[in-house]
């Protein structure tokens, strides 16, 4: 089962969400009040769900999404939806007060979203990693920047990430694909 973390600056807010999970039989839940604690809890795991408020004690939740593993989903519960107009697209948002049915449907969707996702072969992962390494070398990107670059360009060009990676590697002799992959 995926790890479930509930993070709110006040414990009473966590307890309300925990009670909903307990009513449906999910008892293995971690609660915390800060972004640092969330990062400690996700360390060593690859998949899970973080349910949080817009702001934790030490950081905005929208900054936290870039520091957690990609296998994690985030559900932000907010009173004012206008706060969330420019947040990361990987964050799902529900407006308070929450409808229990909508909340449970959203949780179910987020917990199962990667269930049917096709996993890449070792060879495909190696090709993507080589393309990232090339971008790191040629453009002085970090690993995260190279990954994001591949994602964005794949979406913009209607290609899968593996196809974009292959094109970058094929054009690596003259760096043409790297320049044209904008």
Automatic annotation (TrEMBL):
A Pfam family annotated for this UniProt entry: ANTAR
SMART domains: ANTAR
Stored PROSITE patterns: ANTAR
Annotated ranges, domain ANTAR: 108-169
GO molecular function: RNA binding
Protein name, entry field: ANTAR domain protein
Organism: Clostridium cellulovorans (strain ATCC 35296 / DSM 3052 / OCM 3 / 743B)
Upper taxonomic lineage: Bacteria, Bacillati, Bacillota, Clostridia, Eubacteriales
């Amino acid at each position: 089962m995926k790890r479930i973390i509930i993070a709110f600056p006040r414990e009473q807010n966590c307890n309300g969400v925990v009670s909903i999970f307990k009513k449906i039989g999910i008892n293995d839940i971690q609660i915390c009040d800060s972004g640092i604690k969330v990062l400690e809890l996700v360390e060593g795991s690859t998949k899970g769900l973080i349910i949080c408020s817009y702001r934790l004690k030490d950081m905005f939740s929208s900054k936290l999404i870039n520091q957690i593993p990609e296998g994690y989903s985030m559900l932000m519960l907010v009173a004012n939806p206008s706060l969330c107009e420019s947040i990361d697209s990987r964050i799902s948002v529900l407006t308070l007060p929450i409808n229990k049915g909508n909340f449970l449907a959203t949780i179910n969707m987020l917990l199962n979203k990667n269930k049917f996702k096709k996993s890449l072969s070792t060879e495909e992962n190696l090709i993507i990693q080589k393309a990232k390494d090339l971008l790191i070398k040629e453009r002085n990107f970090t690993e995260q920047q190279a990954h994001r670059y591949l994602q964005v360009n794949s979406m913009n060009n209607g290609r899968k990430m593996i196809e974009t990676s292959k094109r970058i590697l094929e054009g690596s002799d003259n760096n043409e694909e790297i320049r044209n992959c904008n």
